[in-house]
Amino acid sequence: MEKTPYSRTPASAGREKLMRLEAPFVLRRAGYEVLSDRFSRGMQFITARSNIGKEVTAWVKCAWHPGSHGHCAVQLDFPPPDKRPTNDEDAIKLIVEKALRASSRGASDVLLLAADEKVTCILAAYLMPLDQMEAVMRKAMAVDHRLVRNGHSPSLYVVAHHGARAEIVNVVRQYSCDLLRIIPTPIFDDDAIDDLSATPRGQEQPTRLTTNCQRFRRDLEIREYVLNRANGHCELCGKLGFVTSTGDQYLEAHHIISLAKQGPDTLGNVIALCPEHHRQAHYGADAKELEAKMLHILDEKVK
After folding, report:
1. Which one of 56, 85, 159, 260 has the fewest CB atoms closer than 10 angstroms to its CB?
2. 45-66: pLDDT as tens digits
């Protein structure tokens, strides 16, 4: 089969073209007003304004197709032979330089986009500040440097279902705004009120909703330290978390005083909880009592 420059097939190039056409629509569905969509030396930049008035310029990067395995990664760079990285630090430096190049052309963020084989469904859309790319690369390298280096073409996974690839997706998620996050609150039409007593029919093909979101940037080292400190045991009840597909004990890191209430992202405010107590800490009738108990536990642990 005839290939395009950089050893890409026409099918691959055509698929990427479709994804680039889809990128502004992803932003619109996420609540952004798209102000411009331009190309500069082969790089696509979309400037958009969120519904809270924040303006961003996203450098669009498209993932390879998922194939039979279902994993998608965004290849961040494909350097020529004389610039190919031979170690982790060189790979990180390469991506930092690429981010600076995008920034010099007006970008503030990178949009990491993944779609299914025929680009009929967007599988992932992460909007990440460019100034966080070095931190993300380092955290991802710590998970599995071979997957991130991807030979000579540094990449980040944005869709994965298990193992180290899924951990890399979690790193990306921690530093990004997930544009495909579903709105949890249902919207009812006035003329549907009379139907509420009937047996619900559900939806054979549920509608995907998207929304703009704001997230606090959490310190991953704090989270990792807390989970290691817990050693698989809920720090509130002492029970072991369930075993995950990777063989680890599952726990969740919880901010006792939430970040939204100006709680600090420090060891004295983050506790490892089993899923049941994490939900109870957020929604339980005794949430205030649990808050005091958890702070007391951390007072003893963090001195």
Report:
1. 260
2. 999 998 788 899 999 999 988 8
